[in-house]
Each structure stands twice: as structure tokens, then as C-alpha cells.
Amino acid sequence: MMGGLDGARRLMERDVLKPTNVGATMARFWRYFRSNSFGVILALTFIVLSTWTQVTTPEILGNAVDCYLQPQSFNEQGQLVTNPNPDCDPNKPLEDKVGGLARVTLTLVGLYIGGAVFSGLAFYTMAATGRRVLLRMRNDIFRQVNRLSMGYYAENEAGDIMSRTTSDIDSIEQTLNFALLNVLSGVLLIGWIIIKMLQANVPYALLSLIVAPFMLVATLYFSGQARKAFRKSRQEMGNVNAGLQESISGVREVQAFNREDESIEQFRKANAANRDANVRAAAFTSALNPVLEALGYVSIAIVVIVGGLSVLRNEPLLGTSIISLGTIFAFLQYTQRFNQPISQIAVLWTNIQNAIAGGERIFNFLDVNPDIVDKPNAKPMPQIQGQVEFQHVGAEYQKGQPVLKDVTFEAKPGQMIAIVGPTGAGKTTIINLLPRFYDVTSGAVKIDGIDVRDVTAVSLRQQIGLVLQDSFLFSDTVMNNIRYGRLDATDEEVIAAAKLASADSFIERLPQGYQTILGERGSGLSQGQRQLLSIARAALKNPRILILDEATSSVDTRTEKLIQKAFETLMEGRTSFVIAHRLSTIRHADMVMMLKDGEVIERGTHNELLAKQGAYYDLYMSQFRFTEPAEEGTTASANGNGAKVITSPSAAN
Q1: Which of 129, 327, 644, 653 could potentially form a cystine with 39 if both were Cys, beta carbons 3.0 to 4.6 Å apart?
Q2: Are 571 and 411 contacting, i.e. CB atoms less than 8 angstroms apart?
Q3: Are 445 and 496 within 8 A, CB to CB?
Q4: What span, in angstroms and rounded, lies between the C-alpha atoms of 185 and 233?
Q5: Which of 332, 366, 400 is the last residue of a domain?
Q6: How far apart are the first and last CA of the chain?
Q7: What is the domain extent for residue 122?
Q8: Phi and psi for 148 in degrees, rounded to 5?
């Protein structure tokens, strides 16, 4: 099975090499917004109203200049022309002109205030809508985390997956809160301004907008480069999170082997790579502002010079009418309003690109199909009696590399099946096939004559209990950790399960008893105490099939006896599969299977296999040599080579 680091590297390479489809990503985003379309429409309405106030003020200002400051102008023949607006009569008294300017001023103030109010409402509405979208997206990610098969987590690091719900979601959140609305408002404002300018004077508008193509080219280039850098940054942040998570989880091993310096150096390299990607993105983002600002000044200069010459020389512009002073003022306002959103869009667009890159990573994760899925016609598993059959089972994690080869055996209800063998023999693979964490590549696994692939995984796993070597406890109360086996269990049932597992005595000594909140992964408890809680959890579930995966390999002999006693009580009447590290714990198994290189090389009872003096005998001997005194019911003597030989009454038969 491929290690986590190789899997994370392969995932990162897919993200880098896979062509980007921005349209598809935006369409996926829209699916989330579609259920909140009213909020989107309301926000867009407020944006339109806010933009209307911005494009109306330059026109009003230009009319005010022509009406009250320069009420007369000349046409292309040099004839005097009076503003046709009756309020702009040049012969009006000064008091009327002052009153007219006051009304214009109040109108402008009202438009500015209205624009601010509409803009604020738009941001509030969009932020509220965005929060609901992010809520759904996080829920989908967490649902996918619980939906994916074990094989995915064997090949991908937890830190990289976590970054999808942290860093990538954060980039989307920042965009929804600010960048997206500003970009939409800016695009609308630019389009509206262009229409207004063309309506006022086409040649003058075209000259004023002559630098717009250069702004577009600069924006596309710099934002494109920034997007690539941000995409790389997101990937490097995933590596940083993965390294941090691994270091925290393995801090004991790091300190025990004095590898602090190496761990720090590895994290430093990952962090430096993330820094370099962010610096590159910032370089392109910061370079864009000065370029657009310089082009904006060129646009303003064109407006002032061309319009000013037309007014001063009293000459028409390209055969049209002579430009009025009010038109120049209006075009200056239009140009400033035009340049500002272009610069803003260019900067914010890189943030949107960053969010799109984060969205692509999230959607790539959501698009991963689990290896284990229910068939379309899968039915719930009936109440299990406990008969298990492996029929010529083959299994592999990587294609062409078999882990199990033609494994066949049968376990009858209530029997205890022990599985032994060297590391890598395939012991854990067998028990992973029972609850269907993985599927067989050949043959079939049947429970009560039903292929496990023909029933729903939920109904199958509800009737199978697991106690693993590394028991996992949550940061919650002892009561809730045991109740995890069956969430609808009463407190009395939880306590009864704890007593069955011999865990009640140490639980009562805890500061708050069953209400004591455990630390992460059960920190504060010994390995044996954590195992007893896991046994209580499995007992509360009351499974028909029980799986014990080297559950006593990490505890001392005294604790092992306590756990073994709890196991014996728990296994009564249940079909049990035990992966044994200490062979002395499986002497009473109904069948012992000895595995090597994915094949069953020996099977039988403990005593039968000892009598054969084959591979199981050799494995038992290797443990017995280091166990003093000899196991009860056995005697040790030296053979011709001076090695101890085990004999027992049963083995002699």
C-alpha cells in the first residue's frame, strides 16, 4: 500500500498538471448559489442602484457647469449657442443661479448618500448569502470525508485534506465577503460609463478610452500569472498543514529519536516553498497597480488636452460640435470612475483567481469517488447469525501486487478464529474485508451465505464490532466515548457495558467519573485503560461478529490479563476474529490460521498446530524462548541442539 507522502505528492502533481476549467468551476459555484438565488438577486439589485448613482453624478455635474458657469457655447460654424434648458438662462439673476447650484449640490449629496446606502446593503446581502453557501460547502466536504473509502486515506495525508476545509475555504470566504461584489460592481460601472460617454460624444469617448485595451492586456497578463502563483500557494499550504499535523501527531517519536532538527528543517522547507509562492503572487499583484495607475493618468491627460484644445481654439473635434467645458468636467469624472474600478478589478481579480484555485481543489476532492459503494439494488443486511465464509479470496491494494492469494476458510457462529503470521502476511487485510473497508479482487466474502457486496455497508457494519491495537478516543466525556458504539443507549446501558469490559473500576476513580472529559485521543489514560473503553464501546454495540486486531500487544502482562478477561466475556456467543501478537492468548481458539505472504500455510487448533511442529510451532517457540516460566500445561526440555522444546498433553496425542 502506498505511503501517505507519496500519495500527497501524486495528488499535488495532478492539481498542477490538470488543465484548469474556470467556466466549469464557476458553474459549480453557481449550483451552491442557486438555492440562495433571492439573496443574489437582491444583492445585484442594490449593485445596480449603487452604480446608477455613480454614473448619474458626472452628467449632473457637467450640466451644472454648462448651465451656471458657462451658459453659452459655440457650434461648429462658430455661432453662439445658448443652453436650451430654461433653468440655464444666462440672463437670470445671480440669486437664481446660486439657488440652482444649491439644488444641484443637494442632488449630488443625495446621490452620494444613496449610493453609499445601496452599496452597504449590497455587501450585507451578499455576505449573508455567502455565509449560507460556505455552510453548505463545508458540510459537503465533511460528508465526503466520511464517505470516502479507507484506501483514499491510505494514499493521502490528513493535513492536505484539512487544508481544503481551512485555507481553501478561507480564500473563498474572503472573495465572497468583498472581492466578488466589488468586481461585479466594477464591471457594471465600466460598461455603464462607456455607454454614457458614447452618448455624449463618440470621438471624444473613443479618444478617452484609447488606453483601455492596454489596461485589459496588463490585467490579463498579471492576473494570469498571479493566479498560477496563488494556485501553487494553495498546494504548498496543503503541504505545510500536512507536515504540521504529522509533527504534532508524532511529537513523541520526534523527541524520542532526537529528530527535532530534521523535523524543523523539513517544515522550514515546506514553509519556505509556501512563502516563495506567495511572494511571487504578491509580486505580480503589486506590479499591476502602478501599471494601471500610469495608464489611468494617460487617459486623464488625453481628456484634458483634447477637450481643452477644442474649447480654447473654439474648434470642433473630428467634425463634431465644439466640446463644452461641462462635457470636459463630465468626461474627467467618467474617466476617473472608469480607471478606479479597472485598477480595483485587477487587484481583486487575483483574489477571485485564488478563490477559483481553492474551489478547484475542493471540487476535485468532492469529485473523488469512493472505492466502496453500495450496489444499486443492495439490500439491508438481515440479523447476522455469525457464519463467515472466505471463498478463494484474493485482494490487492495496488494493481498487480496481491496481498491475499486464494484464501479459503469457514467460521461457524460463535467460533473464535485466530489469525497469526509475520508482519505483512495479510492478517489485517482479512479483517478489513469483513466490514468491507476494502473489496476483494477475486472470490467472495460471505456472511450467513450473503455476499457482503450485495448488502448496504451501513447495515453490515452495524453488526460488526472492532477493537483495534490503536484505540481512538474522542475529546469528549467518558460516557459519550462509550456511547459512540450505540448513540441511543441510556446511561445505565453505558455503565453496564463498562462493567462488562472491567472498565468501571478505573472510570469511577476519574475526577468526574463518567463525565470526565478526555484529552485528544484519550490523553491522560494509559494504553490499557483506552483499550478497556474501546471494549466497552464494542460491548455496547452488541455485535454478532467481533474483530480484535492485536488489541493487547501494547499493554503489560497484568493489564493484558484484565483485557483478556473482558474479551472472553465479550466474545461469548459471538463469531470472533482475533489477530494475535502474543500466541499465548489464542490457545483456546476454535481455529488458528497461519498466514505467510498472503496465503494460509497452516490451520487448526493451537494444540494441533503445535503437534505438527511447522511454521506455527516455530513462531510459538520463538516467543516461548523469551517467556519464563513456561506456559501452564506445558513443559520445556532441551533437544539435541540445546534448544527448548514445548510439549503438552494435548500436543502429544
Answers
A1: 129
A2: no
A3: no
A4: 28
A5: 366
A6: 43
A7: 15-366
A8: -70, 155
Torsion of Cα atoms, 177 then 178 then 179 then 181, to 10°: 90
Predicted pLDDT at 525: 78
Q: Are residues 395 and 362 in the same domain?
A: no
Strand positions, DSSP E, 352-499: 388-398, 401-411, 416-420, 442-447, 450-451, 464-468
Cell numbers found for residue 443: 472470490
Tell me, rounded to whole angstroms, the distance of Cα 428 from its chain centroid: 29
Instruction: Give 350-382 pLDDT, tens digit per residue.
Output: 677 778 888 888 888 888 888 888 888 889 999
3-state per-residue secondary structure call for 124-192: HHHHHHHHHHHHHHHHHHHHHHHHCCHHHHHHCCHHHHHHHHCHHHHHHHHHHHHHHHHHHHHHHHHHH
Cell of 338: 472608469
Q: Residue 576: helix, strand or coil by DSSP? A: strand
Asked whether 299 and 270 are in contact (CB, 8 A), the reply is no
* Residue 359 burial (CB count, 10 A): 23
Report how far residue 350's alpha carbon sits from residue 281's, in angstroms, rounded to the nearest whole number.
Answer: 9
CA dist 327 and 65 (Å) reads 9
Shared-domain flag, residues 277 and 393: no
pLDDT value of position 465: 86
Residue 221 domain-assigned (yes or no): yes
Q: Specify the amino acid at residue 641.
A: N
> Which triple of cell numbers denotes residue 475?
475529546
> Residue 559's pLDDT is what?
63
Are 65 and 173 part of one and the same domain?
A: yes
Residues in the chain with pLDDT values less than 50: 1-19, 74-82, 626-653
Whether residues 306 and 437 share a domain: the answer is no
Structural contact between residues 180 and 29, judged by C-beta atoms closer than 8 angstroms? no
| Residue 91 confidence (pLDDT) | 63
Structurally, the chain folds into a number of domains equal to 2
The CATH number of the domain where 37 resides is what?
A: 1.20.1560.10
459471538: which residue's cell?
574
Cα–Cα distance between 611 and 596 in angstroms, integer? 19
| pLDDT tens digit sequence for 578-589 | 887 777 778 888
Same-domain check for residues 399 and 356? no
State whether 302 and 443 are in the same domain: no
Q: What is the pLDDT of residue 390?
A: 93
Residues 344 and 484 in one domain: no
Q: Give a yes or no: residue 376 inside a domain.
A: no
Verify that 345 and 473 share a domain, yes or no: no
> What stretches of 463-578 show up as alpha helix (H) in DSSP?
478-483, 491-500, 504-508, 527-541, 557-571
CA atoms within 13 A on the CB side of 355: 21
**What's the pLDDT at 570?**
72
